[in-house]
Amino acid sequence: MQIHQIPKIKNSDSDNFFLLAGPCAIEGEEMALRIAEKIVAITGDLKIPYVFKGSFKKANRSRIDSFSGIGDEKALKILEKVGKTFGIPTVTDIHDVKDAEKAAEYVDVLQIPAFLVRQTDLVVAAAKTGKVVNLKKGQFMSPESMKHAVQKVKDSGNELALITDRGTMFGYQDMIVDFRGIPVMQEFAPTVLDVTHSLQQPNQSSGVTGGKPELIETIARAGIAVGVDGIFIETHHDPSIAKSDGANMLKLNYLEDLLKKLVAIRSVIKNF
User: Fold this and answer.
1) What is d(CA 72, CA 59) in angstroms, rounded to the nearest whole number?
2) The three-state (H, E, C) secondary structure of the chain, written as one string
3) Residue 155 CA to chain centroid, in angstroms?
4) pTM for the predicted model, two decimal places
5) Which domains does the chain have, with CATH numbers?
6) Half-sphere exposure (CA, 13 Å, Cβ side) for 88?
7) What tens digit of pLDDT does each residue of 217-237 get?
8) Burial class (CB in 10 A: 0-12, 13-18, 19+), 98
9) Alpha-carbon dihedral angle through residues 220, 225, 231, 234, given to the nearest 10 degrees
10) Cα 156 from Cα 241, distance rounded (Å)
11) CA 19, 23, 29: angle at the middle one, nearest 5?
């Protein structure tokens, strides 16, 4: 697929990388609109194609008392409002087959979580909605194996697939990005680098995932340097009070400076 095929995408002719960014989870309307407004302004100035990201629910939780959402329909309507208010595409992740058609009524891109990308019924259900499908590479999968996930989308009559790399498990509590996998996956579909989840530290004894957000810029700059098509960033005004994945999110105030650096790197490497 081509990036301009994402509905409502802006600046697709800028020859920049594209950006999927927003909070980990939709915590409320005010926070979602506030974050979207800030990112829309930044990406507009920098001519970066932008998709707003927010999970309408969080099904993959370490503990039963972890935040899982504010209610499916309520969160999906907020995502719809973000898209209509700013005229931008939106993406959310789905966890069950029944979520595919439901979420497709409100958003432009359906995301398959990394732990679920081998679930054929889920991938096929997403593909059959006709929406763009963002396939997150399983932490346990090789880059080469993502060919089959993309093929499931295509075999379901949908050519609109993206791949997002979010690191590979290294031991029990760390993620490693193998940049050799980027060009491999680009043979199958446009490839995005998730620079926040790649820095997670899962399986903490507390049951709350940790992270190394101080390395977000390092991972992002390297990804742009090797020619990744897009960047995925979870961001929040105050990650310390975020209800999900705060330990590895980027503080929103740091986003503009980071994106300026990435655009500068992109302008250099695109001539090679």
Assistant:
1) 11
2) CCHHHCCCCCCCCCCCCEEEEECCECCCHHHHHHHHHHHHHHHHHHCCCEEEECECCCCCCCCCCCCCCCCHHHHHHHHHHHHHHHCCCEEEECCCHHHHHHHHCCCCEEEECHHHCCCHHHHHHHHHCCCEEEEECCCCCCCCCHHHHHHHHHHCCCCCEEEEECCEECCCCCEECCCCHHHHHHCCCCEEEECCHHHEECCCCCCCCEECHHHHHHHHHHHHHCCCCEEEEEEECCHHHCCCCHHHCEEHHHHHHHHHHHHHHHHHHCCC
3) 23
4) 0.93
5) 3-267 (3.20.20.70)
6) 27
7) 999 999 999 999 999 999 999
8) exposed
9) 0
10) 41
11) 115
Q: Residue type for 203, please?
A: N
Average pLDDT over residues 72-83: 97
Task: For residue 238, give both structure tokens.
Answer: 């105050």
Residues 30-73: tens digit of each pLDDT: 999 999 999 999 999 999 999 999 999 987 655 666 777 899 99
> Which of 109, 64, 114, 70 minimizes the C-alpha distance to 90?
109
Cα torsion for 54, 31, 167, 187, to the nearest 10°?
50
Would you say 9 and 18 are in contact if contact means Cβ atoms under 8 Å apart? yes
Q: In this predicted structure, what is the pLDDT of residue 205?
A: 45
Distances, alpha carbon 244 to alpha carbons 26, 43, 54, 235, in Å? 9, 24, 11, 11
Q: How many CA atoms lie within 13 A of 227 on its CB side?
A: 13
Q: For residues 157 and 246, what is the distance between their CA atoms, to the nearest angstrom? A: 37
Which two three-digit tokens encode residue 65? 């008392």
CB 198 within 8 A of CB 219: yes
